[in-house]
Predict the structure.
Amino acid sequence: MKETRSGAAELTHDFVELSEAGAAVRLPAASALGLRRGHETEEGGEGMRRKVALAAIAALCTGLLALPARGGGAASVRAVWMEYDARYNTFWQQLKKEFEAANPGITVDNVVVPWNEGHDRLVTWIAGNQAPDIAIVGTRWIIEFNKMGVVQPADTLLPKAFIDKFIQPALEARINGRLYGVPVALSARSLYYRTDLVKTPPQTWQELLAAAREASKSPGVYGIGVSGKKFAELTEYVYYLYGNGGDFFVTNPDGSYGRCRVNDAAGVDALRFMVDLVNKDKVTEPNVGENDRGTLQDLFLAGKLAMIETGPWFGGMIQERAKTMPFAVAPMPHNQGKPQQTLLVTDSIIVFKSAKNTDAVVKFLEYAYRDGPRLEFDKDFGMLPTEKSVARDAYFQTAFYKPFIQQLPTAKPWPLTADWSKVEDVMWDAVTAALLNTKSAKAALDGACREIDAARGIK
Amino acid sequence: MIARAASRLTAEERLAYLLLGPALLLMAALIFYPVGATIVTAFGATDKLGRISGFVGWGNFRALGADPAFWQIFRRTFLWTALGVTVKTTAGLGLALLLNLPFRGRKVARMLTVIPWAIPYPISAIVWQWTYNSQFGLLNQFLTTTGLWPHPPAWLAEPRSAFAATMAVDIWIGLPFFALVFLAGLQAISPEYYEAAAIDGAGAGARFAAVTLPFLRPVIVMGSLLSVIWTFNDFSVPYIVTKGGPMNTTDILVTHMYKTAFQFLDFGPASAIAVITFVTLLAFSVVYARLYFREVV
């Protein structure tokens, strides 16, 4: 019974998506086919039963034949958008409306998917030959999709003037000199702190610890948030790793990634520092194993954290959900003696090779990438500008955005490797094991590197 | 030949085949083909899209066998199933006996019992995930303010408590099914048997052992068999409540299979896990059904 129920739930879900896409397939209503009680008795006998059966089969066939019509028509763009927050659907629906009005004959089908499910949903669609025409993806996923051979190079599809609009750090999706995705969202991570609890923003780990200790003295407040629950990205370990001059892989002379190196001194010290924050200094929330980035943000919004490391979108969330909270933003702290460096993350729009109406896709992208909608997107979802012209807007010249933009030149992206999903999963387990004190930082990362190297075929 | 065979069929039989046809076609497309394709993939080397590029014989199975993490998950799935089914069956029986007693508000009580089962599983799982949250959740708030447990654990943060908490959600969701099925079984037992037993001097315990249990046996057997299959394959509860964490300590075969396929894109090993799950459940069902029918006949 359970299988039936969950199956039905999935079907309903798919139907809703189809309906949203404006291409729902509907079977003729039973009443229209004469499938009413009493009909049989009125005419009686087998003849009527057969008619009803034939009608039912005809209805089924009509339904089946109608299926390929999904997404058909003159020109349509089927787009999958990963959800940044609740207003997201409205943004794309509005853009769709305006675009369709300006471009009669082209329709846009929007499907919005939560980030945490996005990767797996896209893979399922790709594997089932149901890839959309375009999709927003974490740029770190592109190399994997490219290895599947399903992504079109963006620089052949879009004019040079289009590509030239972007600021350099945003053009992360280059593989072997080709650009495979156009940046849609850019963020650098920074330290948010409560100005009533932290007087001077910490620049180094040592200052961070001191500030966290001080803030923890306030009742009901934890110094700094650390998350130990798997999330769509390996926060916060990566902040400490990059802030300690560490990296995930050894870089080969040809630029490719070699062995895993998180178990070197930089990697181990980064994790050890986090473990100490949690278990020795006890300046974090006590339940690190149950928090991911999302619930940590909730803790900060509830006034229980003095500091949190996250992206520019969080500023908007504070203004919306904790209006009176006094806060400021500072560059990500680093280990004393190591250069300051934070994580830079881009999300990109990719065009799938299976896209039929590339002209329509290009038209839509050109429409979506006008300065107006781009500024609106960045404002709505708290992202940094990806285009030079948008970056010049007065909106980004504020004290809030300054630390984010100031860190961009030295910020480092995630490694682009096809096995990233596996690497990230193994790393999460290692970090959680160390945070929960079931393994030492060194043992956890040694084990992780063995597993990562084996998974990547490095002996 | 076919025409001759067809001509031997009566009109009604022909209509029957015609009506069965679409269902058979759909079953072939939606059940037989995927199962067959999964079995073939289990013996194949695949690319990131699940396309088979060659065959590796038992390679995928051998790789799983050599992976200690797989065995851990395999054992945990059995523990998960055994615990879940045992608790659901016994507590379900207890609940059914209670609901079978005449008392005021019995109808309301029966209706309330169904609620956990009537709510879509993912929604229950999400609600429980929040209930367990140690900072915002209702459970720890309740335990601490009432003084029942001044320092309750952060349920989903540690491996052991996360497993127990996830198990509890599965039981909470599955219990009403047993209560209802057992209640239906209880109501089918004629009161005359109880009267006869009472006349023979049987007390409540004896009546339960000599009348209730024997009559309920077929229901218990079928109910627990279904529950074994559902619990073994329960995806939504562990996946939504903990995503298999912390450190994969609440992963069971079906969540591990999903991650292997759709997170790591290792479709060969994932299909091998699917085949192992299928064979395990098939073997269990066959043995169980044989034992059951042998005794009944």
